[in-house]
Amino acid sequence: MVVKIPDSKSEEAKIMLEEIKEGKILSRRGLLVGAGKLAVGAAGIAVVSSGGLTLLSKAEAAKKNASELPWPYKKLNSKEIKKVAEIAHDNWFKGFCTYAVLSGIVDVLREKVGGPYTSFPTEAFIFAHGGTAGWGATCGTLIGSGIAASLASGHKTGEQIVNEVMVFYSDTALPIYMPDHPKADIKAKSISHTPVCHISVGKWMKEEGLEEGKGPEGVGFLSPQQMERCGRLSADVAMKTVEFLNAWADGKFKPVHTAPVMANHIPSQNNCTACHGESIPKPGPFGTGMSLIGGH
Amino acid sequence: MVVKIPDSKSEEAKIMLEEIKEGKILSRRGLLVGAGKLAVGAAGIAVVSSGGLTLLSKAEAAKKNASELPWPYKKLNSKEIKKVAEIAHDNWFKGFCTYAVLSGIVDVLREKVGGPYTSFPTEAFIFAHGGTAGWGATCGTLIGSGIAASLASGHKTGEQIVNEVMVFYSDTALPIYMPDHPKADIKAKSISHTPVCHISVGKWMKEEGLEEGKGPEGVGFLSPQQMERCGRLSADVAMKTVEFLNAWADGKFKPVHTAPVMANHIPSQNNCTACHGESIPKPGPFGTGMSLIGGH
């Protein structure tokens, strides 16, 4: 099969260059219709993308581009989920928590689905480790979870999934997962009651120090024990995210918990008294501006 | 110019399909060397990517794929920075804070640079609004800032940039930016002393209520005033991020502030006593496990 691409000095090539300069990027469908002589064969379409060489079916090739969600998702089986967990644990030691969860899921989807996952820059999210650049706020695993869930199921379902993962994260004694190649022996599990890194890891370090008989100050940050804990926790969060994605793929994902911002009328945790005691501030009327929201 | 793509029933096509199934994705350089008959012309290489049709120079085409950072960055001028700010403000009302900052920067880079930005799924990060799915932890603007900075400058510089942006966010009376099309009149500016959404927006709402003479409970969450504040704040964070990226492009970006995790030996803010009072816990020895870290 032969494909014609215009000579670089031809009128057609000049128009093409002008269109590119003007930012008139053609949709793939537009490309097939408007420049129909491009590489359409019996088996599909040979596409040289930023991720390498891909052969798409005609139906796939006519789909929306990678900037639009959701990307294709295929349910992961138990062997693949185990692989997600192992990569998440091991990759904590390469790029910390956000990268661990995200690369655990994306690496396996690169193998199983390919396509847009292959050219997704997982390293761009490393910065979210340690509660965002080490500032101790949102646990980085949850950012990795939300990104993976949103890519695979779209931004609305993705947010519902990460909300459920955050409930799991906050209410469960973690870590649970036992990796094939632990880098330290650890004993403690702890319930964070928060998605906040500083509090979550602080509680666990105190607990582990007590378990080891060293007292509450026995285990430090970036100790082998803390690092192993956060590696296992990354595996737990990655597996839980895939569990919800698999349920969603079966049409069985049902969000159970109301997002705290809707429940409490301010972005927040649900355990207000843990910080505020009994004197919880009452802000003004909620939600009157929602009519300003468009688009999404 | 003519490009040959193997007939779908040929031996070559079968091998190609097998390689794709096995996940052997060729790098673009590999593709040029190994399958040299593909589309290499005098003007460059016609590439059908997920983002549409692109014409790359030979040098560009030989570069790493979109999963690798940094992506190309071109300094934005004052007109373009104004556009970043306007998009950030306006897009808050479409997808909230993370999306606002990220789409403000990425939309302008799509026009100026094109390439990988065009197919980047900015909606995948909407979930990080309101301190992550409305849980009130890391302000979503900072997640948008970190992603944009990491895409354009790589993950190490990106993290240094977002760290500086977080200092700006925490120490500055915000919002500063006055948009072309404000959706509400607001009066207050407030210093958050934290990257935590719940505290940052809570302080501002209290301040605005007092400014409006309604008392500290006068302005609620998702009131027109709060939404306008967070929209302007998104513009401030997006502009500050671009300011650092421009300095970096000139070789003039110098990280000034130590990441709190390194300064305080735990992921944290720097104002420990604000929450802990004088009895700040002292965890165990810091950093002894760092030898376990590979890769990054």
Describe this structure in words.
Two copies of one chain form a homodimer. By secondary structure, chain A is mostly helical. Chain A has two domains: 51 residues, no CATH class; 180 residues, no CATH class. Helix content of chain A is 48%, strand content 4%. The first copy, chain A, has a two-stranded antiparallel sheet with strand order 2-3. In chain A, a hairpin with a 2-residue loop joins strand 2 and strand 3. In chain A, helix 6 runs parallel beside helix 9 and helix 8 crosses helix 9. The first copy, chain A, is globular. Chain A starts with a strand and ends in a 20-residue tail after the last helix. Strand 1 of chain A pairs antiparallel with strand 1 of chain B, so a sheet runs across the interface.
Summarize this, please?
Two copies of one chain form a homodimer. Chain A is 48% helix and 4% strand.
Question: What count of helical segments of chain A does DSSP give?
Answer: 11
Number of strands of chain A: 3
Largest interface summary = A-B, 136 and 136 residues
Shape of chain A: globular
Mean pLDDT of chain A: 83
Oligomeric state of the chains in view: homodimer
Range of helix content of chain A: 40-55%
SSE arrangement of chain A, N to C: EHHEEHHHHHHHHH
Low-confidence stretches of chain A: 1-10, 12-63
Between the first and last Cα atoms of chain A, what is the distance in angstroms? 44 Å
**How many structural domains of chain A?**
2
β-strand percent of chain A reads under 5%
Q: What is the gyration radius of chain A calculated from CA atoms?
A: 23 Å
Structural class of chain A: mainly alpha
> Biggest β-sheet of chain A, characterized?
2 strands, antiparallel
